[in-house]
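Lecture notes, part 5. Sequence design as translation. It can be helpful to think of inverse folding as translation between two languages: the language of shapes and the language of residues. The source text, in structure tokens, appears below.
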């Protein structure tokens, strides 16, 4: 495999020439993978050549792979209001390091992104960052994300909002959810719901089960997620009689019960979609007890033996929804495999050290995960739990389909003549996750000190250099 690049050296500079020979290409949009070669000239894919068996002899998916740029439907970039944890610029740099060329920012900033003026400030920050990574932004569903009255959805849609969400907070009122689905449907935008029943999660610290009991942490029941999912699906079915364009997306689902509700709703034809995160696929609540086994390896007693290699109560593992047990983690993986889960999102949630260096139950929720997502998925691939093409599809064609339904004009794939939007990954290499290696300001990752498979060598966004190892 050979890579020749001319026009690199400065982030944001258009790629003059890039040639990648004898690599493994994966294009889920074309539903194709195999040996091939790429030529980029003046920022555009001049040639995509798929090699036949003889020409591609010796090229394997365990070497260098070239894939379309990743799309993250769910990130927290913290600006405005929490720039000590992340800025738009640092978040986009982190995204490029993780292979993402498009990211969708949630509106739980301070002030919340609930009007066109604040929306414009976020887009302006992206423009001044110099990053070619495309930033898309959700508008808040309610004023101040307080759940009391709908925000100016029409103005936010006109400003470019790709959907509406109060993420970070659930939509408590069934009336607000119903009206939001109606209004957003008229605008051709989805409502993105954070499924949580606050009455069941007040004071909760970890998944309800053995680990929480032994560690003395207040449990967070499965019903706190599955209940709101069932409610949302019932409201959606009712709304569709008045507004057939209404669509509902559940983000970061984490339990078998909730995923099964979505599975059955899809089978019934409801316009619903959902996503899962890498940490809910690959980690379990046993990590809070000190285990560092992947979820698919988690068949030993978490309190004994080699699996327990860390101390308990690592606050980087406090996340909303909480890490579940191995059975729910397996359900997340199964949902990804059978298409119930449309996409993998990082729910990238950077925090300052001050917000995490406290007692476990007082720590801010969230994992800084946009730079480690592909490594976690490739660990599942290497364990034969996830086909490579499905892993890449969950980061490309899956989220792209959801965004296209929301009016996003972009397209992703290895298509000749299009602006180059691609990631080059060396599958034969690993990289050590260290605070210094993360471009995000948030270092709150439970994977610090761990070797992850697959090193991102190059990220090209819209024909311009976004990251180069």
């Amino acid at each position: 495999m050979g890579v020749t690049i001319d026009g690199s050296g400065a982030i944001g500079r258009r790629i003059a020439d890039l040639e990648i020979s004898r690599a493994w290409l994966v294009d889920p949009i074309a539903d194709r993978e195999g040996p091939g070669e790429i030529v980029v000239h003046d920022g555009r894919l001049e040639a995509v050549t798929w090699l036949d068996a003889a020409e591609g002899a010796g090229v394997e998916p365990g070497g260098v792979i070239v894939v379309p740029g990743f799309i993250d439907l769910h990130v927290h970039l913290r600006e405005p209001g929490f720039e000590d944890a992340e800025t738009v610029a640092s978040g986009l740099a982190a995204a490029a390091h993780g292979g993402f060329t498009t990211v969708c920012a949630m509106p739980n900033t301070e002030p919340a992104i609930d009007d066109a003026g604040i929306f414009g400030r976020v887009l302006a920050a992206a423009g001044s960052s110099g990053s070619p990574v495309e930033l898309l932004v959700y508008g808040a569903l309610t004023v101040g994300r307080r759940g009391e009255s709908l925000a100016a959805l029409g103005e936010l849609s006109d400003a470019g909002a790709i959907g509406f969400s109060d993420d970070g907070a659930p939509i408590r009122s069934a009336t607000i959810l119903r009206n939001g689905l109606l209004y957003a449907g008229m605008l051709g935008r989805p409502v993105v719901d954070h499924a949580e029943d606050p009455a069941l999660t007040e004071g909760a610290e970890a998944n309800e089960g053995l680990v929480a009991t032994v560690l003395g942490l207040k449990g967070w029941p499965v019903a706190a997620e599955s209940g709101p999912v069932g409610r949302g699906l019932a409201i959606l079915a009712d709304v569709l009689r008045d507004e057939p364009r209404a669509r509902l997306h559940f983000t970061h689902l984490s339990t078998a019960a909730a995923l099964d509700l979505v599975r059955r709703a899809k089978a019934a034809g409801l316009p619903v979609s959902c996503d899962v995160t890498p940490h809910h696929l690959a980690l379990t609540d046993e990590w809070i007890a000190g285990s560092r086994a992947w979820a698919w390896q988690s068949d030993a007693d978490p309190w004994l033996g080699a699996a327990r290699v860390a101390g308990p109560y690592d606050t980087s593992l406090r996340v909303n929804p909480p890490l579940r047990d191995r059975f729910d983690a397996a359900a997340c993986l199964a949902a990804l495999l059978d298409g119930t889960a449309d996409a993998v999102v990082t729910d990238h949630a950077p925090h300052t050290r001050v917000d995490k260096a406290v007692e476990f139950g007082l720590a801010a929720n969230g994992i800084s995960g946009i730079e480690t997502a592909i490594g976690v998925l490739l660990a599942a691939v290497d364990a034969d739990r996830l086909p490579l093409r499905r892993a890449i599809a969950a980061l490309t064609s899956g989220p792209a389909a959801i965004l296209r339904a929301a009016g996003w004009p972009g397209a992703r794939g290895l298509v000749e003549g299009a602006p180059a939007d691609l990631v080059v990954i060396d599958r034969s290499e690993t990289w050590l996750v260290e605070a210094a290696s993360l471009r995000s300001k948030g270092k709150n990752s439970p994977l610090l000190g761990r070797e992850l498979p697959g090193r991102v060598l190059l990220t090209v966004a819209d024909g311009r250099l976004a990251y180069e190892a």
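The translated text above is only one of many valid answers, since several sequences can fold into similar shapes. DSSP finds 14 helices and 19 strands in the chain.
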